Amino acid sequence: MFDADSIQALIDRFERVLVAMTADPNQRLSSIDLLDAGEVARLDAVGNRAALTRSGPPPMSVPALFAEQVARARQCEWRCWSLVSQLPG
Fold first, then answer.
1. Which of 34, 10, 9 is nearest to 21 (CA)?
2. DSSP E strand boundaries for 1-89
3. Spatial distance between the Cα atoms of 12 and 10, rounded to a whole number of angstroms
4. If we measure between CA atoms, which residue out of 38, 33, 42, 40 comes closest to residue 15?
5. Are 15 and 23 contacting, i.e. CB atoms less than 8 angstroms apart?
6. How distant, in Å, are the alpha carbons of 30, 36, 48, 68 from that of 19?
7. How many Å apart are CA 39 and CA 25, to the nearest integer?
8. Which end of the chain is less congested by CB atoms within 10 angstroms, N or C?
9. C-alpha Rg value of the chain to the nearest Å
C-alpha cells in the first residue's frame, strides 16, 4: 500500500508537527506547515498558486448571498410559479 519513500515522507511530516507543537503548545494545529520546502516547490510547479493566493470577494453568509441573488433576479410582478401546477391530474 505504501512504499518506503511514502512512509518516510509521512514520518517526516509527523515529526514536523511534533517539533512545532512542543516548541509552542498554544499554537493552532492548522498553523503548522506539514510540507517541506521541496514539497511546496513541487506543488507550486504543478498548481496555480496565483489563483489560490489572490484575494477574493469578502465571505458572505448564505442568507446574504440569497438576498443578493433575489435583488438581481427578474421580477415576476403578478405572476407566480408553483410545483403544484406541474403535478399530474
1. 34
2. none
3. 5
4. 33
5. no
6. 14, 14, 30, 46
7. 25
8. C
9. 25
- pLDDT above 60 for 85: no
pTM reported for the whole predicted model: 0.50
Give the type of residue at 49. Answer: R
Domain ranges of the chain: 4-72
Map grid coordinates 504543478 to a residue. Answer: 46
Q: Please tell me what DSSP assigns to residue 65.
A: H
Please state, in angstroms and rounded to a whole number, the distance separating the CA atoms of residues 61 and 28: 25
C-alpha cell at 73: 433576479
Cα separation of 68 and 66, whole Å? 5
Q: State the pLDDT at residue 32.
A: 94
Q: Per-residue confidence at 89, pLDDT binned at 50, 70, 90? A: low
| Residue that is written with C-alpha cell 506539514 in the block | 34
> Which phi-psi region, left, alpha or beta, contains residue 77 (left: φ > 0; alpha: ψ -120 to 50)?
left
